[in-house]
Every structure is written in structure tokens, then in C-alpha cells.
Amino acid sequence: MQETLLGFGAIFLLAMIRIPLAYAMGIVGFGGIALLMGWPAANASVAQVVYETGFAYVLSTIPLFILMGNFMAVGGLAEELFKAADAFVGHIRGGLAHATVVASAGFGGPCGSSIATAATMSKVAYPAMRRLGYSQELATGALAAGGTLGIMIPPSTIMVIYGIITQTNIGKLFAAGIIPGLITTASLMLGIAYITRKNPDLAPAGSRTDWPQRWRALKDIWGSMLLMAIVLGGIYGGVFTSTEGAGIGAAGAFILTLLRGKFTWRNLYDTLVESSRTTAMLFTLLISASIFANFVNYTTMPGDLKRLIEEVQLAPIWVVGFMMLIYVVLGTIMEELTMVLLTIPLFFPIVMHLGFDPVWFGILIVMVVQIGLISPPVGMNLFVLNSLIPEVKLAAIFKGVWPFVFVLIVNLLLFMMFPSLSLWIPSMID
């Protein structure tokens, strides 16, 4: 165990001197293996990780889903989803905030990224909310919290990465995210309803839209909804694999962009470059995390933790609860994806040893990532909004997001206590 603790200490030390965590994990993992097993073993281990990661067929899911989401963004999906949601709920108090959450859920599905969802929706929804007189705190809080739905509503990049690292069925992970995604969407809307009822001045009601206009708004999003139904239906129905579904989704999103008249050669170039950058970043993190995971596996840490848990004789659910508490605390000071990649090699074997379902644990991981994304002081969604909406001070964003952090923590407890909420749909998949 001592070796692993020293490894973690070295990672945090490197991070403090401004070395990116992805590189820090790789350096410490490589050095640790070299000290334990020798330099030839370290070289061989790193070479194997790089080769297997670069040529793994299942990993092609990541760039394809990223490309799909970027094409959807270019195609104007977010704006159309927001208009459709606004047409139905914009007339109630806090209606635009409700519409933001609903649109984020709809856009987050194909996008698969929390940060991208928050960034895109901020350009669409924030100006409308401010024109109607919404407070900066509520508007930015709803945008930040709604953005987190991008990683819960399938397909989700975090789920793909978790599935690859833990060898968990990605299709079942996607299926497991449906009910929690809907519950989380409804919970955020309940939070908005409570906030606006307590202080009506934060969000005035908008004008009511007649039914013919509502139906016209729905007509604008049929293509996107059809594409999502084909991709997810095909994966769940066993018609094609997750990787094939990602390819179909990317191709379909490109066709939709063409049909909507949003295609330009400049848009295509920017989309491909952005997708490549995001993919390169994620693959760097995956490779570094795998190197560090190999180092951890060479130490006595996994076995020591298992023996410690057996000696303490805590109820298994309390062990998982303690893990979730660690994640929530770490999420306030660390980048969320790195946090997950850093800790999964430690926690996942323990979860399996305790007899829990890896799909259920994957949903809990997504939930704690959601919480971390909007938890001050380093929640990534908060800084994204701060950079895109410079007139809003960071302190105001922090103030506005706290009620939604509480809502997500309650949801985390709910999914821990009732695993069937996550496992019901996956249980119907062969």
C-alpha cells in the first residue's frame, strides 16, 4: 500500500507545479513500474498500453460520438430544442429555466458532453432569460446544472470510458442511464419550481404559446429525435454494436446538418478539428490512467484494501457510500474525468469483491461526476459559463448553482438506495 500512496502523493505534487494531470499520471505510473519491476518491464508495459489503446476497436466509439455531438451543435439542434421546450413551458414562472433543462437533456443525448452542452445552451438560453428579467444566479445555475445532463442521458462519453476501463457492457450502461437521466431532469425542474416559488422575482412568467405554434416547434426537432431513436434503439435491440451505432449517429448527424442548410466547408473544418482535439485529450487521459492503473495493480494496495474492508466488517453499501463521499469531496478540487480515471483502478475491484453490479456502480460514477462539474470552486461547467458570459461574476454563478448541487446529491442517494432504478432496463437486455 505504501507504494501506491507515494504514487498518489507524487501525482498531486506534479499537479501543484502545473504539470497536467494526464502527464503526471503517466510519469508516475511509468516510474513506479520501473522501480518495482525494472526498466524493461516498464517500457514493455507502456508500449503495450499505447498500442492496445490506439488499436482498440471499441475505442472508436469515443471520436464517433464526439463527432455526432459536434455535428448536432453545428446543425442548430440546441436552439430548436430550446424553442420547442419554451413553447410548452415558457408561460409558467421560471419557464425559460425549465426549458433550458429540458433542451439540455435533449441536446445532451447526442452531444454526450456536459461542458459542450452547457456552452452551447448558454449561447441560446441565457440571452432569452436575461431579456425576460431572470436573475443572473438562477439563469447560470440552470445552465450549469442542465449541462450535466449531457453525460447522463445516453449516449454518454463518460459511460463509454467507464465501460472500456472496467470491461462493462456499454449498451447496458446506456440503457441504465435512461431512467436516472429522466429522474435527474425532473428533479432539476422541481428545484427550479421551488426556487421560483420561494422568490418569484427571480424569474417572471413568459407569454403563453398557442397549440398550433407548439406543434410547429415539435416539427423542427423530429429529425434529431428520429436519429436518437435509431441509434439507441439499434444498440438496445442488438441490431448493431455501440461502435456501429456511433458511426451511424455521426453519419446521420452530418446528413441532418446538410438537410438543415447549416453545412459549410468552414463548419466542417471546425467540427473535425474540435472533434480531433477532444479525442486526443481523452485518449491521452486514457493512456496515462491505464499506465498508472498497471502500477497500482503491481502494488499490494488492492489486496490491502480488500482485507481492510473485511476486517472492519462494514455493510457493503456503507463502503460504496464512503467511496461516493470521497468522490464528492474530490470533485470540488479536481477535474472530474481525471478524478474518475485516477480512482477507478482502486475502487472498482473492491466494488466487484463486494458483489455489486458494475452497471449500477457506473451510474453512481456518472452522478458524482455530475456533482463535481457544478461544485465550487473548480467545477468545469462554472468556469465555462464564466468565460462565455463575462458580465456575470463567478461569485454569482457559485451562488446560483448551490441549490442544484443539493438536488444532485439527493439523486445520488436515491440511486444508491434503489439500484433497480438503474438496472431495470438493462435487465431486459440479453
Q: Explain this structure to me?
A:
The chain is mainly alpha-helical. It has one domain. It is built from 22 helices and no strands. The protein has helices at 2-16, 21-37, 39-55, 61-74, 77-89, 95-111, 114-132, 136-147, 157-166, 170-176, 178-198, 211-219, 222-236, 242-259, 265-298, 301-312, 316-330, 336-353, 358-373, 380-388, 394-417, 420-423. It starts with a helix and ends in a 7-residue tail after the last helix. The model has no long low-confidence stretch (mean pLDDT 84).
Tally of separate helices: 22
Shape: globular
Separation of the first and last Cα atoms: 39 Å
Which ranges are low-confidence, i.e. pLDDT below 50, for 5 or more consecutive residues? none
How many individual domains?
Answer: 1
Reported for the largest beta sheet, the result is:
none
**If you compute it from the alpha carbons, what radius of gyration comes out, rounded to the nearest whole angstrom?**
22 Å
How many beta-strand runs?
0
Can you give the helix content as a percent range?
over 70%
Strand content: under 5%
Structural class: mainly alpha
